[in-house]
Amino acid sequence: MKTKHVLAAATTLVLAGGLVACSGGGGGTASQGGGGGNDATNCTNTIPKADLPVVTMWAWYPNMETVIDNFNDQNDEVQVCWTNVGQGGDEYDKFQTAITAGTGAPDVIMVEADRIPTFQIQKGIVDIKDLGYEDVKGDYSEGAWKDVSVGDGVYGVPVDGGPMGMIYRADIFEQYGITPPTTWEEYEAAAQKMKDAGGPLFGDLGANVPAVMMALQYQNGATPFGYDSSKPEEIAIDLAGSESKEVLNYWAGLVEKGLVGTQDQFTPEYISGVIGGNYATYISAAWAPGYLTGAGVGEGEDADVWRTAPLPQWDSSNPISVNWGGSAFSVTSQAKDPALAAKVALGVYADEKSLEDGWQNQVIFPLNLTALNSDAFVDYEIPFFSGQQANKEVYVPAANDYTGMTYVPFGQYYYDAFTQQLASINEGSISGSDAADALQADIAAYATEQGFTVK
């Protein structure tokens, strides 16, 4: 069998950084620790109950110190030694080194959901199905659990997510007589109406956000990948089906007609355009208000003009909710006591005090149903949206309807390859259909090189 080849190849993947959407937009990070791994003497926090066993953790949420203090104060079985070794890619690089060396990893690690299969195939994280999962299974939706699962195994505890919606400029919509489109057909018609009237671009196709296009393909009924850890040598790849091509052709058409921009997102240039009213909409997720606020959006002339609406649908008779971003706590294979580590992964950032601090400060969009469906959260009048009850109107229904997506062990290569194809679309050198065909050939060839049998 090719399993050993697959595992060996996976360890060579370069886990590049980028925007960590699930961290509330990266609006700040905690102090950067030098590592620590399983060394409980290198903690950012103070451990109040020194006589209890200690579990080490790496995580980068901006309010992590508050969360850890809450857990340690409330817990009489275990204490957490927390270190921030970097956000996103920086942490993953250190974890990758620890996996390869067989030492140096913490007991519990924060990871984005789409990275879980990569670390799972390397046996860097463990299945928690028999480590307390059943006790908290009902605290999260099926979609949230699917995002942190590989096959029948559960490899993380979901913390926050990114149900998608359409953020828009209410002042620009009003000026040009636009109502929030409910379908992508209406979205294009509104974009054309705005252009014909001399208005700004309606949106933006950033080549550096392939996860958005993947989500929209899922929304259109595509199933880009099929992967089951019980058959680690096999992977199903369908990136050029009619559903995927329809999405890419649609956005290529918007670009060709000059209805949307082609600026890479999360750049100073893009943010400047957002603030300046160059874009009428921003297709994004529930974490976006935190990110935008941290980037200075909504504080000057663009204050009090932002609203949000449900994501337009490809088929209004069959609405589908999709997600962009999200992270979890996983138990590593180097955990000194996996059962005790699982208690931490399952219990940290799950208490009412921490969850409330997280969502009120725009650090997380909570997936814990106690918070997600609480009156306080559902009815919250979000300041960035000028008091709009965006959770009730857009994000909570989307989160509750979300059924999950399947990620793959070489997600970063896929995203990089997809970015190249989106850049070609933006340059006008390739059609959406041709981009899908090229992506299918590239990813299938890469998977085969890594030892997978492509189905």
UniProtKB/TrEMBL annotation:
Matching Pfam families: SBP_bac_8 (PF13416)
Classification via Gene3D superfamilies: Periplasmic binding protein-like II
UniProt keywords, alphabetically: Signal
InterPro entries (alphabetical): Bact_solute-bd_prot1, SBP
Signal sequence segment: 1-21
Record carries keyword Signal: yes
Stated name of the protein: Lactose-binding protein
Protein source organism: Microbacterium lemovicicum
